[in-house]
Write a structure and sequence with these properties.
It holds the Pfam family HATPase_c. Its EC number is 2.7.13.3. Keywords: Membrane, Phosphoprotein, Transmembrane, Transmembrane helix. This protein folds into 3 domains: 133 residues; 71 residues; 147 residues, 2-Layer Sandwich (Heat Shock Protein 90). The protein is an alpha+beta fold. The protein contains 11 helices and 7 strands. Helix content is 67%, strand content 11%. A hairpin with a 2-residue loop joins strand 4 and strand 5.
């Protein structure tokens, strides 16, 4: 009876959980978050299955080497093949896992030596010692390589963050302007609200409208601060399904005041479809922001009437693309060869890391960034990133 009750309970619980997930997904998460939720869960499930399969294959290799080492003569150093296990394990385990794996291989090597009866004992002992030394040396090299790779990744992340902070420094005037506008509007609305309320006959309707404007401007200022916070905080890479157009819009909003301050006319031909990509929003904002800063600097020597930046987002070959064209000084053929090289710069006070990090970020997202000379003067930069969802699915979801 208890079993039957539990069976019914579990059956209904699963159904309720499914309906709760379905309703939550449709009503609360929204289209983007629902896609994110499904994709990340599928990724986790796929990753788990892959790990199980790889662990099973690794076990088969271990058993195969152990059997071969045990049935072969002592003069044959079959235990050396355990190095293969360590090298394969290096793809899936960190230092502790490699150490544990080497301990398992050591136990199997010694066990095979003790169980093997055929062959000369002395040669077998020497072969076992050589195999163990090769095993430990391989494990040491693998662990050192992993540590070096981790240090290199940390250094790259720090460089990326410093470049982000530098970009924020250059956008300080733009950010201050973006925050001052809603603050000024809030002050004006607050004064208006007070005036409507202190009258002999308070106009409650007008006062409420002023309060609504205050709330709206406060949210606007909060959005600017949130954009800055995203760019400045030090977080690990976090990919999610985002609309490429939204990232471009956020970056333009941060750069708008700086663009206007330099008397630059900005045109944005926005793709009508949603360009859903699997990306780290902050990193892609950093790339686009860096391109804006470069374009603004290149346009400073132009006459105000000739300063234009054109941004276009579009779909090509199932990829989300951004093309930024400016009418600045352009790029020479010699400079194009080195423009993405580390520490190469013609900018006074520049680090030569901006475009290098841009390329590293784009390539980490399985994308491509290119630069070429604009035939009509200036430069053209293009970013191409793989779409997370096919265009027809995106259009259906709009």
């Amino acid at each position: 009876m208890t079993y039957a009750f539990m069976k019914v309970y579990i059956h209904h619980k699963v159904r309720l959980d499914f309906y709760a997930f379905f309703n939550k997904g449709l009503l609360n998460l929204g289209f983007f978050k629902l896609i994110n939720f499904i994709q990340h869960n599928i990724k986790d499930f796929t990753l788990t299955i892959r790990l199980i399969i790889h662990a099973f294959l690794l076990s088969i290799i271990l058993v195969t080497i152990f059997i071969f080492d045990t049935v072969s003569r002592l003069e044959i150093a079959a235990a050396v093949f355990y190095i293969i296990v360590i090298l394969i394990g290096a793809r899936y385990f960190v230092a502790r896992g490699i150490i544990l794996l080497s301990v398992v291989c050591t136990v199997l090597t010694i066990s095979s030596f003790l169980l093997t009866k055929d062959g000369a004992y002395k040669e077998g002992l020497i072969n076992t010692i050589i195999a163990l030394m090769a095993l430990y040396l391989t494990s040491y090299i693998v662990i050192r390589a992993q540590m070096s790779e981790k240090r290199a990744m940390n250094a790259t992340e720090q460089m990326t963050r410093m470049a982000r902070i530098q970009s924020l420094g250059e956008l300080t005037a733009s950010i201050a302007h973006e925050i001052n506008q809603p603050l000024a509007a809030t002050t004006a609305s607050a004064d208006a609200c007070r005036n409507w309320l202190v009258r002999d006959k308070p106009d409650i309707g007008r006062a409420v409208q002023a309060l609504e404007r205050i709330s709206k401007e406060a949210h606007r200022a909060s959005e600017v601060i949130e954009r800055v916070r995203r760019l400045s905080k030090n977080e690990i890479t976090k990919k999610e399904i985002v609309d490429f157009n939204e990232i471009v819009a956020e970056t333009i909003a941060l750069s708008k005041a700086l663009i206007e301050h330099n008397d630059i006319e900005l045109h944005w031909n926005r793709c009508e479809s949603k360009l859903l990509i699997d990306a780290d929003r902050v990193q892609i904002m950093q790339v686009i922001g860096n391109l804006f800063l470069n374009a603004i600097e290149a346009l400073n020597i132009r006459h105000a009437a000739d300063r234009f930046i054109t941004v276009k987002t579009f779909i090509l070959d199932n990829r989300a693309n951004l093309r930024m064209t400016d009418t600045g000084i352009g790029i020479s053929d010699d400079d194009l060869k080195h423009i993405f090289d580390a520490f190469w710069t013609k900018r006074e006070g520049g680090t030569g890391l901006g475009l290098t990090l841009c390329r590293a970020i784009v390539e980490a997202h399985k994308g491509v960034i290119t630069a070429r000379t604009n035939p009509h003067g200036g430069a053209i930069f293009e970013i191409s990133l793989p779409l997370a969802i096919k265009p027809e699915v995106i259009l259906h979801g709009q």
